Description:
Order of helices and strands: HHHHH
Distance between the termini: 40 Å
Largest sheet: none
Number of helices: 5
Amino acid sequence: NHPAHQKSEEWVVKEQKLNLIKFPKRSPDLNIIENLWSALKERVVSEGAANEKELRTSLLSNWELLTKADRLQSFFEGLHWRYMECVGKGGQKVSH
Length: 96
């Protein structure tokens, strides 16, 4: 119930003199974790686990690799580009 949550976009633009960038709602292209899940899936599938134990091992080892700070950087670096592409396409999926 905070007053700021009850203001309209018009109020933000006119009264606060801010320029708003309208991004599509709920686009997976704009959610870094979705891109991380996709990368994890690709890596695990390429290893071709033959049973549950191998699958679990592959998931855990690849997750550990993908979530290291230096590896996560690439997911963040492309975010601005994905925002602009997604907005340009009216919220439609962006090809990577």
